Inverse folding.
């Protein structure tokens, strides 16, 4: 079965950092672009970032540019989202998704930014 | 950024009846490669989104054929031919032609 499993969420103070991970299984991870999409409580979906199959091509939403860094380790079938300088408005459920058009989703990991 | 506008935002439906959601983009979604990257997603309460339709009208594997997508350029529609109880939730359109990727606001479908 194709599966994406996120981890690394939690409670962090404003200005703090967190690193999310997404472990992929059931498909040839190294051949697929990957993405992160978030959903604030009770709100809609917001694309955050995407990375190409090699890891050398990345895109970011303006709301996270300069604070978040997407990366991947194809030897571990895992992608990451390093989140720095976190703000209250970054509070959301963060989903890992396959490809640039999100054809497969994980179950999400919750990030709460609060003092 | 491409703005995706869905209507209606709330859609009460009767079981067995058809339903339709509209999605309009602020600019053409035709990619330079000739494809139109407009997708539809369904999110049930407490669950992750699931893609139903990609490239305007292609159903993903396992999606019932009561779901269909149509449209072109800037105007798109998701239709459910006969609504079933499991179809409740929020439907989102997504454009994956331009960066940044952008979603519609979501349409909440509920049973009357």
């Amino acid at each position: 079965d194709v599966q994406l499993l996120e981890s690394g969420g939690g409670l962090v103070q404003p200005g703090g950092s967190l690193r999310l991970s997404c472990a992929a299984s059931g498909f040839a991870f190294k051949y697929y672009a990957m993405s992160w999409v978030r959903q604030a409580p009770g709100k809609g979906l917001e694309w955050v970032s995407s990375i190409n199959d090699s890891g050398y091509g990345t895109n970011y939403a303006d709301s996270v540019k300069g604070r978040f860094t997407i990366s991947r380790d194809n030897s571990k079938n895992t992608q990451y989202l390093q989140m720095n300088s976190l703000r209250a408005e970054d509070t959301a459920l963060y989903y890992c998704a396959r490809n640039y058009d999100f054809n497969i989703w994980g179950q999400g990991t919750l990030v709460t930014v609060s003092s | 950024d491409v703005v995706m506008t869905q209507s209606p935002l709330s859609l009460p439906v009767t079981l067995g009846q058809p339903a339709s959601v509209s999605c309009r983009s602020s600019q053409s979604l035709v990619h330079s490669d000739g494809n139109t990257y407009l997708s539809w997603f369904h999110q049930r309460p407490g669950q992750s989104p699931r893609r139903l339709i990609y490239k305007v009208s292609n159903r993903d594997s396992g999606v019932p054929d009561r779901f269909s997508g149509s449209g072109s350029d800037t105007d798109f529609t998701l239709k459910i031919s006969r609504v079933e109880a499991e179809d409740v939730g929020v439907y989102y359109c997504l454009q994956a032609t331009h960066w940044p990727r952008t979603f519609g606001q979501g349409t909440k479908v509920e049973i009357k």
Q: What stands out?
A: Chain B touches chain A through 22 residues (CB under 8 Å). Chain B has a mean pLDDT of 98. DSSP finds no helices and eleven strands in chain B.
